[in-house]
Design brief:
- The complex is a heterodimer of chains A (472) and B (268).
- In chain A, α2 (43-51) runs antiparallel to α3 and α5 runs antiparallel to α7 (319-333).
- By secondary structure, chain A is an alpha+beta fold.
- The radius of gyration of chain A is 29 Å and the shape is elongated.
- Chain A is built from 8 helices and 27 strands.
- Helix content of chain A is 18%, strand content 31%.
- In chain A, the strands form 5 sheets. In chain A, strands 1, 2, 3, 4, 5, 6, 7, 8, 9, 10, 11 and 12 form a 12-stranded mixed sheet that branches.
- Chain B has 2 domains: 3-155, no CATH class; 162-265, no CATH class.
- The radius of gyration of chain B is 20 Å and the shape is globular.
- Chain B contains 14 helices and 2 strands.
- In chain B, α2 crosses α4 and α4 (64-72) runs antiparallel to α5.
- The chains are: A alpha+beta (472), B mainly alpha (268).
- The interface between A and B is large, with 46 and 34 residues.
């Protein structure tokens, strides 16, 4: 029987939802085969049934709601019943709603430059009332709130099965995550249940940073004024910040910061958690694309992304863009006061060689301050013989084991007297500024480069000496 | 809005009516400002292409009257340059008086981008409000996010800009390669009220503009009441923007650092 399942599954996947524009009055109490309780019978329910197929009552994982015929086993008859009802939605189905309120914050689309536009309203729209937002014209837009605030909902509408019903004072109930309940009253006319005004949650969001991949609100309506029946589920991504967000409020900034700092309840814990998200050298934008530091680039000039806005779109950037990304994530969480720091060699016109560089030979450049011959990765002139200073693999940066390492300068971030290098996930460097500066240098600098007459040349870093400076 | 800023904004409004006079003054500097194509943020001059630096140096020498005439102009470019000049002059009161520009979302002059490549320079667009926001962040350590409302929240109780802690640190940072200027600044800091002085010295030590020896000595010279207030973490910090951010984390950091320095200084 199990061997038949793939064939059955393929058959089911090709079924178009049976319901398009007529809600079935007989479904007032919802769909019998709605296993996950979201108001419809769809692929999620089918998948859930298949995951427990052949299990019997009492076995681990058995789902009673999938045993439609109550015979104690999830079998072919249950599967057949689900398929017969596939595409079912209830008699009342949430059609649209939007978030609002004093703690609500708009989320802007990621865009490469300029001012990025906010997501529009309503935040949830199931235009054809088929129980999902996957069809043309549908939407499930992200929203954000500041922690500890009330969630409010307005522009709430439902489709109702009968065009003839004319009702007033219809109670509506929504159950969201973390015990948030929304209560209101609507009127039915012309096949639409409209809830006037704003529904404020009965309680506030938890007092922590949060990222809800799906902030599901299970709606119910009581058309008879007393008995509540399922009315669909609205499902949006929701970001909850520590404080009022600052800056451009791009979706990826919200996603990176709240996902990393999920559960944080203070500035210190939020910074620590966010930093852990950078320190592992794996940062993804909201689309799950991994962001890189000079990926595929050994000459810095070949990468011209300097700001976080470009980084989350182009997926690859210089250290300036990574410093900016950390700062924008802090700002989006509502953490103020981070500053970018420029690091340059103390000696004017010298540049940085970030680990790893090999220095072989005795130093034959002819310049005492830069004794080793060296060829720039950005082009000539080249020494006639093999250079004495050469680039080796590392130091690893964001999603890149061997990023560009030949620079004029580098950029990091300071907040509350601690210094973070997001490009390499290094830090925080602490102590006085000069102590932190030396620690940063010891962690990543192998040497310095500059011109020796016509050619490039290099020297090694003196480990115990601070030879760079934090400029800010 | 604080009294200082209010007075300056009134002054700016009144002077704006003297447009003819202002125009006469700006006519002479039009050619000078026209040479400016990019501005540094956070005093990061090395990010400016070398050819563009002389014009910036020249324009930074304009008088306060010429600077304020630029600030009164309706041109976002002139306004950006006025912010730059006030920043370079370290004229904190002038910067605070420009708060109304936080409403100006028009593109101003671009700023020098954070470019790491060798001999590589680039520019990034910014609005007048964003440039002023970056200047406030540098001088006062707070992010007003192009919002007058946020500015007022932070600066409402600022009466005397000379007694703000962070600007002294910025002045010392910028003077670190000028021994004479540094000595003058440090001398001036010894004349500040004790409740400001201890914070400047402690933050200065943290930022390596004072050595631990210098900081311990200066802290040991504080009046006993101030030292005791630091020791018991009393609320002695001036009500300055820097200490209002991030729910007191900066305040705690500073008190911890100062208590640590005081403890060292009291060892026999």
């Amino acid at each position: 029987m199990i061997r038949l399942l793939p064939i059955v599954l393929i058959g089911a996947l090709t079924l178009a939802p049976a319901f398009a524009d007529n809600l079935d009055p007989s479904r007032l109490d919802g769909c019998r085969t709605d296993i996950d309780g979201d108001g419809d019978t769809d692929l999620a329910d089918l998948a859930e049934l298949l995951s427990v197929y052949s299990l019997t009552s009492g076995e681990p994982g058995f789902i009673e709601a999938a045993d439609f015929d109550d015979n104690g086993v999830i079998d072919l008859s249950d599967l057949a019943e689900l398929l017969s009802e596939y595409g079912c939605v209830g008699a009342v189905q949430v059609e649209r709603m939007q978030f609002t309120g004093a703690s609500f914050v708009n989320v802007a689309h990621d865009c490469a430059s300029g001012n990025c536009s906010n997501y529009g309203t309503p935040h949830w729209l199931d235009a054809n009332l088929d129980g999902d937002t996957e069809d043309p014209g549908d939407r499930a837009y992200p929203a954000a709130y500041v922690r500890g605030g009330y969630v409010s909902i307005t522009n709430l509408r439902f489709g109702v099965s009968s065009d003839d019903l004319e009702l007033t004072d219809v109670p509506v109930l929504g159950a969201g995550p973390d015990g948030l309940i929304f209560e209101g009253t609507g009127s039915v006319s012309g096949g639409v249940l409209t809830v006037a005004g704003t529904l404020q949650s009965n309680t506030t969001l938890p007092d922590v940073v949060a990222c809800y991949d799906t902030f599901d609100i299970a709606w119910e309506a009581a058309l008879d004024g007393a008995t509540f029946f399922p009315a669909g589920v609205s499902s949006n991504r929701m970001y909850v910040t520590l404080d009022d967000p600052l800056g451009r409020r791009l979706e990826s900034f919200f996603d990176i910061s709240t996902r990393a700092a999920h559960g944080a309840d203070s500035v210190q814990s939020a910074i620590a958690a966010l930093w852990a998200g950078f320190a592992d050298l794996h940062v993804e934008n909201v689309r799950g694309e991994v962001l890189g530091y000079y990926r595929g680039v050994l000459c810095a000039s070949d990468c011209t992304v300097y700001e976080a806005q470009g980084l989350v779109m182009y997926l690859n950037g210089q250290c300036g863009s990574w410093a900016d990304l950390l700062m924008q994530c802090l700002r989006t969480l509502g953490i103020s006061g981070s500053e970018w720091i420029t690091i340059e060699p103390i000696i004017y016109n010298h540049g940085l060689l970030v680990r790893t560089y090999k220095f072989d030979g005795v130093g034959t450049s002819g310049c005492s301050s830069l004794p080793y011959t060296f060829n720039s990765p950005c082009g000539g002139p080249y020494w006639p013989d093999d250079p004495e200073c050469t680039d080796d693999v590392g130091l690893a940066g964001q999603d890149n084991p061997n990023p560009a390492s030949y620079f004029s300068r580098h950029f990091i971030v300071q907040i509350d007297g601690r210094f973070y290098d997001p490009s390499y996930g290094a830090g925080p460097f602490t102590g006085t500024t000069n102590e932190a500066n030396l620690a940063w240098e010891q962690a990543g600098i192998d040497g310095y480069h500059g011109y020796c007459g016509y050619y490039h040349a290099a020297r090694t870093d003196i480990y115990q000496n601070r030879e760079t400076e934090f400029i800010y | 809005m604080n009294k200082l800023v209010k007075v300056n904004l009134i002054a700016v409004t009144l002077l704006a009516s003297c447009a003819t006079i202002a125009n006469a003054q700006t006519t002479d500097i039009g050619a000078l400002t026209a040479r400016v194509g990019v501005l540094p943020r956070l005093n990061q001059w090395t990010l400016i292409e070398p050819d563009s630096r002389p014009a910036l140096k020249d324009v930074a020498k304009l008088s306060n009257e010429q600077r304020d005439a630029l600030a009164r102009s309706d041109s976002p470019v002139d306004r950006s340059i006025a912010i730059f000049i006030a920043d370079q002059q370290g004229d904190v009161a002038a910067l605070l008086s420009y708060a109304r520009m936080l409403d100006d979302q028009r593109p101003g002059l671009p700023y020098a981008a954070r470019v790491a490549g060798v001999d590589q320079y680039d520019r990034s667009d910014q609005s007048v409000a964003e440039y002023l926001t970056s200047a406030y962040l540098d001088w006062f350590g707070v992010d007003v996010d192009s919002s007058i409302k946020r500015f007022e929240r932070y600066f409402a109780e600022v009466d005397e800009s000379d007694n703000l802690v962070k600007p002294w640190i910025v002045r010392l940072r910028r003077a670190k390669h000028d021994a004479g200027k540094t000595a003058d600044l440090k001398q001036h800091i010894t004349t500040l009220p004790a409740d400001v002085r201890w914070a400047v010295v402690t933050l200065g030590y943290k930022e390596s503009v004072y050595t631990s020896k210098q900081a311990r000595k200066l802290l040991s010279q504080l009046p006993p009441a101030t030292r005791r207030a630091v020791d018991i973490r009393d609320n002695i910090l001036p009500d300055e923007p820097l200490f209002k951010i991030n729910r007191g984390s900066m305040r705690r950091l500073l008190l911890d650092e100062s208590r640590s320095l005081l403890a060292i200084s009291e060892k026999p």
